[in-house]
Automatic annotation (TrEMBL):
It comes from Streptomyces lavendofoliae. Signal peptide: none annotated. Residues 1-57 are annotated as: Disordered. This is CsbD family protein. Coiled coil: none annotated. InterPro entries: CsbD (IPR008462), YjbJ_sf (IPR036629). Belongs to the UPF0337 (CsbD) family. Gene3D superfamilies: YjbJ (1.10.1470.10). SUPFAM superfamilies: Hypothetical protein YjbJ (SSF69047).
Length: 57
């Protein structure tokens, strides 16, 4: 389960980066903001998984 969550976090971060870059390139501020939000969501998910791993060992 943890591997799935970590993979999902990496996917969210990557999708967010693409959205942010695309939004910036096209001048679409909303898409750029959505990309940053997705990246933050991925960062939070990754931090949660790292915390869980720390307490498992």
């Amino acid at each position: 389960m943890a591997a799935d969550e970590k993979a999902q976090a990496r996917t969210e971060k990557a999708k967010g980066k693409v959205k942010e870059t695309l939004g910036r390139a096209t001048g679409n501020e909303r898409m750029e903001a959505e990309g940053r939000a997705e990246q933050s969501k991925g960062d939070l998910r990754q931090a949660k998984e790292n915390t869980k791993d720390a307490f498992r060992h």
